Every structure is written in C-alpha cells, then in structure tokens.
Amino acid sequence: MELKEYAISDIASLKYGKMLAKTKFTDKGHPVFSGYRVTGYTSEYLYENPEVIVVARGVGGTGDVKISPPKSWITNLSIVLSVDTKLVDKFYFKELLHAEKLKSKLDSGASISQITINSLESYKVKLPDLSFQKSVREVLIKYDNLIENNNRRIAILENMAQSLYREWFVNFRYANHQDNLDADGNPKLIDSPLGQIPEGWQIVALEELCNKITDGSHKSPKSVDVGVPMASVKDMHDFGINVSKCRQISYEDYEDLKRQDSVVKANDILVAKDGSYLKHTFVVEKELEMALLSSIAIIRPNEKVKPHWLAYCLRSPLVKERMKNYVSGAAIPRIILKDFRKFNLFIPPQELMDEWNSIVEGMVKQCWNLVSRNENLKQQRDMLLPKLISGQIELKD
C-alpha cells in the first residue's frame, strides 16, 4: 500500500472556532461545541457539516481530535480542519490524528497547554488513497456502533435507577407507601430541618453514615512513562475512572501514597470535589491499583447505609442545590471536607433502603459490565487502527 506524505496545510484549511456571546445562548437550537463537549445551544450555526477539530487549549484535553456535530457553533477552544474531501475522509483523518498523540508533539503552552494553527499546519501525515481510507472507516464505525449501543443501554439503566430514587425518596411514593397515608390519601409527613419527611425517617450528618470521609493526595508526584495511574476529577465518568487518560506515577510514589491511605477500596464512593462538584459520584466496583489527587473525595460508608443508596442520594438535584452552601472558591469551587462531614441527609428506614438497593444494585452491575465491554472494544479498536493504516492487516473487498 502506497502512502503519500502531506503537510496538514496541503489537505485542509485551518481556522479557530469563534467565541459565542453569553446573550446568544438559547434553551434549544444548534449545539455549541467547545471540542470538549456540547456546552449549550444557539439559534445560529457556523458549520453545516461535521468537521474535524483539534482541541487547542484548556485543562486536560489539549490535542484531542474529534468530529463536531452537524449544524454546530464551534468555539475558539478548538481549531477547525476543513479537509479536502477529494483527498481525505474526515472520519479516517480524525482517527489518524488521534493516533498521532498531538499534545506530546505540538504542545507549546507554558502554564496552560496549547496547540497553535502554525504548528498544526506544518505537521506532516502520511495518507493512503481515498478508497482505502473509506474502507478503514467502515471497519472502525462497526466498533463505534457497538460502543454507542452499549452507551444507550447504560443511559436507560441509569435513568431507571434515578427515576426510582426520585419516586421513592423525593416524591415519597415508595413500595407500600399506601400504608402511610392520611385520611385524605396524602403521605403522612412531619416537619424536619430539611423540609417535610415521612414518619419514621431520620436526619443524620454524613459523617454518621461513614467510616471515612477524606480526599486524595495533596502531593502530586512527578509523572513517569510506565507506572501506576493517578486520577484527578477530570478523569472521572458516571461509573468509574477513565484509566487510559490518567497520568502515571512511579511504583515507589504509589507505595508511599498507600501508606497514607490515599487509595481506593471496593464499595468506596468517589465524589467530584473540586470544579464541577458532585458532577460525578459513584460506587467503586473493585479495589484498584490507583492513586487519587485531592480533587476527588473518598467516602467509605458504614453498616448504616447502602453504598449505592448513598451515591444516588448525593447525586440527586436537591442535594446538589443544597451543596452550594458548602463550597468555597470563585474560579474553582470546591467542597470543604470539614463542612461536608456535617452535611445533613434524611435516610429512610433500613428495610426500605434495602428493598430499593436490591433493585438498583443489579442495574448498576449491568452498567459496570457494559462500561467494561466498551473499554475492551476501545482497546481492540485502538490496537487495530495502526495495523490497518500500516497494511499489517489487509482489508478484503
């Protein structure tokens, strides 16, 4: 297979996205895409078709390569690469640049990582002919479709679990709630510091439900090429840690952190503590050989509460709203642990919590399984790509 070398400027025009004024954001419309994610909507769009973008700067994502949504407004955090479609398949090009690990080669930032148009324009890539690019795309899209199907199943299960929590513990329509109705058919509620709650429920401080409430290491060991993952809040997702995105620290530093107990055990709850606090809160499936930075809080529930119940409680919108009074910091809001320990929650009777947990625990386990499948699919896909590009694996018509 013949490969031809091009400077990126030979096969694409490059342009920064455009900042959107706050007054232009709307509740619905065309997606506003930062390169990291869709950050809102607007009535206008800059690009009708999906475009290849490179994240130009920011925290944690510089050098990421993605395809923008159709009819979207792309912001100035990203560089838009409008490719010559007679030479380049967009999807293939996105995968090729992703495999190049651009941040490690083109990052010119000092305190904040950044990639510029100048450095990207002169960067050289080798491309096969267009028909081969499209053949590779078709193979990779099959993997992406499997991953997306699993993501849809995860979203359905997560929505079911959240709806069940809301129905039982916000609307108080739990199993056999008819036994606790007044003469008018309304739930029998009593006044509490957190508002009205059913009779027999309790108000307790978070620290009464936990053996441990702490955060990760306040020391940030230097990175190494091969070692143990060290996660920060940016590496979290709804059911775990994106281990592949974590930086690595030495085994010696990890053992030192273990002695300080800054490691994670099964059934701990990890909480996004800094930045978008409570954005991610989940139960740890199994003990991990991993260290955490202080942007993540570690909660170790005791026998008074089920870990999954407590995690969904902390994720509920009502708790997130109350948590606004327990954070400090303007630029980067963060939960203060000494206040977090005193944070009050209401808890239902044990048998009701156990009944809810028996339903939801199975849903969470299915989500864990689907997340694991996706991780395996992504690994297979990433291993396959360079072999397809190099011709080690031949594509049959």
Describe this entry's structure for a reader.
The chain has 397 residues and is α+β, with helices and mostly antiparallel strands. It contains 10 helices and 26 strands. It has a 4-stranded antiparallel sheet. It has a 4-stranded mixed sheet with strand order 3-5-4-8, with no helix packed on it. Helix 5 runs antiparallel to helix 10. The two termini are 15 Å apart.
Mean pLDDT, nearest integer?
Answer: 90
Count, helices: 10
- How big a fraction of the residues is strand? 15-25%
- The outline comes out as elongated
In the CATH hierarchy, what is the architecture of the largest domain at level 2? Alpha-Beta Complex
- Could you list the spans in which at least 5 consecutive residues all have pLDDT below 50? none
List the helices and strands and how they pair.
Blueprint: E1 4-7, H1 8-11, E2 12-16, E3 25-26, E4 30-33, E5 38-42, E6 52-55, E7 65-67, E8 73-74, E9 78-83, H2 90-99, H3 102-106, H4 117-121, E10 124-127, H5 130-169, E11 189-190, E12 197-198, E13 202-205, E14 210-215, E15 223-224, E16 228-231, E17 236-237, E18 240-241, E19 247-249, H6 251-259, E20 269-272, E21 281-283, E22 291-292, E23 296-301, H7 307-315, H8 317-323, E24 327-328, E25 334-335, H9 337-341, E26 344-347, H10 350-390
Parallel strand pairs: 4-8, 16-22
Antiparallel strand pairs: 1-10, 2-9, 3-5, 4-5, 6-7, 6-9, 11-12, 13-26, 14-23, 15-19, 16-19, 17-18, 20-21, 20-23, 24-25
Helix pairs in contact: 5-10
